[in-house]
Write a structure and sequence with these properties.
Layout (H helix, E strand, L loop, with lengths): L18 E7 L3 E7 L5 E8 L6 H19 L4 E8 L2 E3 L4 E4 L11 H9 L3 E5 H12 L8 E6 L3 E7 L2 E2 L5
Parallel strand pairs: 1-4, 4-7
Antiparallel strand pairs: 1-2, 2-3, 5-6, 8-9, 9-10
Length: 171
């Protein structure tokens, strides 16, 4: 600029440049979706599962659903996969300690299994923590530094953001 100060430029993210795949493992279903960078869902698939399904059949169904999304939208635009599940998670080992929703996948190292299948970055966390983060990024908690999120379903789950950071631990 003429004043000698750097000019200000407004930068933005092209929300449609890349996509993210989301996987939600629930007690009665698997949901796989693809979204843009602002979290807007482009397509969603759902498959019912039951307590009779074993780990191999659940993972096969999950991979078939992700493959369908990748075939429809292309892997080249996907920057990662997020996996959500109910239960206790060892974040350091990316290991499902106990899934209250899908008991057959308890004691499973889910992150390396998904990474190996797709050669993409994979983020795994509990459904409650991810719902809290969604509220912080997109919802009613955007301007809050301290938030407590309580979910009442087949069990009780609590997630906390303190001073803008999610508190990690075990259930």
């Amino acid at each position: 600029s003429k004043s000698g100060k750097p000019s200000k430029k407004l930068l933005y993210i092209n929300k449609d440049l890349y996509n993210i795949i989301g996987v939600d493992l629930r007690s009665d279903s698997i949901i796989v979706l693809i979204s843009n960078l602002e979290g807007e869902v482009i397509k969603s698939l759902r498959k019912d599962i039951s307590s009779k399904d074993n780990k191999e059949s659940i993972l096969t169904e999950l991979f078939d659903m992700v493959d369908t999304i990748l075939n429809d939208y292309g892997k080249e635009k996907v920057i990662g996969i997020g996996v959500s599940l109910a239960g206790a998670l060892d974040k350091e080992r990316n290991y499902i300690l106990l899934s209250s929703a899908v008991q057959h996948i308890s004691n499973t190292a889910i992150k390396p299994i998904v990474e190996e299948n797709y050669n993409l970055s994979v983020f795994v966390d509990t459904s409650n923590n991810l719902q809290l983060l969604a509220e912080k990024w997109f919802g009613h908690a955007k301007k809050s530094e301290d938030v407590v999120y309580v979910e009442l379903g087949s069990g009780i789950a609590v997630s906390i953001i303190s001073n803008g950071n999610i508190i990690k631990g075990y259930s």
